[in-house]
Amino acid sequence: MAESFFKWDQEKLTTHVDAMDNEHKKLIDIMNKLYDRNAAKAPKAELSAIIKELAMWTVTHFEHEEKFFDTLDYSQAKTHKTIHKDLVERLKGHQAEFEKTGQLGPAFFQFLKTWLTAHIMGIDLKYGVIAAKKAG
Ligand SMILES: [Fe+2]
Ligand SMILES: [Fe+2]
After folding, report:
1. Which CATH code for domain 18-135?
2. Closest listed ligand to the CA of 58
3. 83 C-alpha to center of ligand 1: Å?
4. How many whole angstroms from 80 Cα to the centroid of ligand 2?
5. Which InterPro entries match (predicted)?
6. Could you tell me if 115 and 54 are in contact, meaning their C-beta atoms sit under 8 angstroms apart?
7. What is the pLDDT of residues 39-57, one digit of tens each?
């Protein structure tokens, strides 16, 4: 099997909130599928369907996450929501570009990688810390 585009790393990526970790894993699975199918030169319609799935799951995940951290005393909730909005817009921009060109270039996969590392590790972990404190 081909090397995965992105591997789940429990130590580095866990938010210690199981439901959110499971959704992050689901997103990573879809990204890996997209990476593999793109590398295998799958037809445009198939790639397009995977990107749609990714976009849909991203929106759903962000909704769940926002609902969750709104139950916490999380001072950065507003900024976090703005970042989500920006990520969705950028993802949709890449999606529109793909629909036009039929190409998923390195910039697209770089965007996904940065999103995962910078967002999950840099931002999502923060509500994880607060949730852990609340749980005692
Ligand atoms: Fe987030
Ligand atoms: Fe997240």
Report:
1. 1.20.120.50
2. 2
3. 8
4. 10
5. Haemerythrin_Fe_BS, Hemerythrin, Hemerythrin-like, Hemerythrin-like_sf, Hemerythrin_metal-bd
6. no
7. 999 999 999 999 999 999 9
- Judge whether 87 and 58 are in contact, CB under 8 Å: yes
Contacts made by residues 34-39, CB under 8 angstroms, sequence distance 24+: 34/5, 34/104, 35/4, 35/5, 35/6, 35/109, 36/2, 36/5, 38/104, 39/2
What percent of the chain has pLDDT above 90?
A: 85
Span 79-114, pLDDT tens digits: 999 999 999 999 999 999 999 999 999 999 999 988
Distance in Å, CA 79 to ligand 2 centroid: 14
Dist. CA 69 → ligand 1 center (Å): 9
Expressed in angstroms and rounded, the spacing between residue 107 Cα and the centre of ligand 1 is 21
| C-alpha 87 – ligand 1 centre gap (Å) | 9
